[in-house]
Amino acid sequence: MTDVQQKANAAPVPDVGSAVPKRRRRLHPALVIAAGAVLVVALTYMLPPFRNYQLATMGAYFCVTAGLTVLTGLNGQLSLGHGALMATGAYTLALTQNKWVNLPLSFAVAVVVTTVAGAVIGLAAARLRGPYLAGLTLAVAIVVPSVTSTFDETFNSDQGLSVILNPPPETIPMERWQAWLCWGAALAVVLLLALLIRGRFGRDLRAVRDDETAAKLAGINIARTQVLAFVVSAVCAGVSGALFAVLAQSVSPGAFPLTLSLFLVMAIVIGGLGSLFGALWGAVLLVVLPTLAQSVGEQTGSQQLEGNLALVVFGVVLVVVMLAAPGGLASIPSRISRLIRRNR
Amino acid sequence: MDRFIYLTFDGLSRGLVYAAFALALVLIWRAARIVNFAQGSMAVAAVYVAYSVTNATGSYWLGFVVALLAGLLLGVLVERVVMRFVDHSSPLNGVVVALGLVLVLQGTLGIVYGNEYQPVETPFSRDAFEVGGIAMLSRYDLFVFAAVGTVVVVLTLLFTRTAIGLRMRAAAFAPDVSRLLGVSVGGMLTLGWALAAAVGSLAGMLVVPTELGVHPTAMDVVFVSAFTAAVVGGLDSPIGAVVGGLVVGLLLSYVSGYIDVTVAPMAILALLVLVLLGKPGGLFSSSKARVA
């Protein structure tokens, strides 16, 4: 970082599209995260157990959507393999936990293993663009049941494994403990991501996304940046998978189908690619929409409607958002105001 | 040795199906520079239509023809209603929209038909003939050879010998000049999508009976195999797609036969990684660099 660079960064960028350029003071991420933590703890005391469980699920999803939005939105790498990376984290946690019954240790091992897995896929992916990258990661997503069936003495093929857990302390109900665990992990992950993308690493990511040649000329190591981005988001996916293993107290390949990876893409697109807040809304939607679809299915009494309606809704939302507002739902107000201004 | 011969023929028969499916991907790639990730789901939709028609009328062939027509129609719909409006400033957009279509199709099929595997019948027996005591080919394999062979010949003639094929190639190669010369570029694009979707439906009709049956996600693994086949051949080359399909089919057949069926998807992934990292242009690609 030279002085010139710092000056260039500090210069206020006029906000294109608004008549009056305004400078927003950005809160430090740590403050936002602390406020979020207070909010979550307060919520867990107010909500009934089942809602707390759903809150926990949102936290687990938030981990992976935050990591994926950084990879896809800021670095331009689309990954359809994050469901498989979640499975990696989940299975690692299950195997370690069943051996030593030590949750912090299991999480640490899950993080290490998904780091390695992410590095391997990332190294292969770093040279690929667009559809090739999507195809490769899609193949990774498809491979999960194949792996669990081939090494069935370890992974117990389609039945999967159950996870041994020590019960939480007597004073805390199970669901509240789950919500704390998931949101604790999610907020920690998101804080780290927020700090990462504020700094030099984030600028490198965006530079590589926007113009590889220029980034190379500016001395950014393209391959290293891309692999690092993949590893970071893979770790987020691994933590998320491990959380899901704890939540369900079991792991099986059926929990990580291809549609899960597609859901994750939907979640980050709908919130606006590259925005951590968008990733939060995506995670919330991933829990809320299926619940709504399920209640509709129950009202009509149709078994076939329950899971599939959510698929259709997600798919339609994904297509419509991509066609109408590629910046995600957050960009719609500014687009509308621009349209109005243009028509005056 | 007997087993090897049997597996080779089985692999060739499978490989031709992947070749047809890879051809469908190549058609759209050449026309629109999009890899249609919804191809598998579109094919499944066509197979379900055939399943309904066959169950209603009792005629396999009527179902077969209707499936191809349904594929054509679905291709037109997808291109006219959705893909035409994709912003191509980033190559991600086309992929993401196609993935959205995958979700829509899978969900819709699940709502209409349920999420169980429905067995699908074949028009010919799948028991292999024995030649000199060695099991080689079944009647169904011959049917597959004939069907895919016909498709390849028809497509080749269409693109090389007819005015419409010339227009399609021109529209893909130089859209602006073609427009000046009076070619309806948008129409050619729609036609390309329709053709590709019909070829994809044919591949679906051929492959689904040999697997567990028809299911909303029946083509997921087939799609990855066909994508691998297309990449082996280089996404630009129809001949490459056919060769790539045969390579993938043989690989899958040997791996399933000599090791285990469950290993097959891993073998595909390994092949895909090898090709992408070792010979990224594919074996038959005409372009120098991979810019997609």
From TrEMBL, chain A:
It holds the Pfam family BPD_transp_2. The chain crosses the membrane at residues 27-47, 103-125, 132-151, 177-197, 227-248, 309-332. It comes from Actinoplanes lobatus. The gene is livM_3. It is a multi-pass membrane protein. Keywords: Cell membrane, Membrane, Transmembrane, Transmembrane helix. InterPro entries: ABC_transp_permease (IPR001851), LivM-like (IPR043428). This is Branched-chain amino acid ABC transporter permease. CDD domains: TM_PBP1_LivM_like.
TrEMBL record, chain B:
GO terms for molecular function: transmembrane transporter activity. The keyword tRNA-binding does not apply. Keywords: Amino-acid transport, Cell membrane, Membrane, Transmembrane, Transmembrane helix, Transport. Pfam families: BPD_transp_2. GO terms for cellular component: plasma membrane. Belongs to the binding-protein-dependent transport system permease family. LivHM subfamily. This is Branched-chain amino acid ABC transporter permease. It comes from Actinoplanes lobatus. The lineage of its organism: Bacteria, Bacillati, Actinomycetota, Actinomycetes, Micromonosporales. The gene is livH.
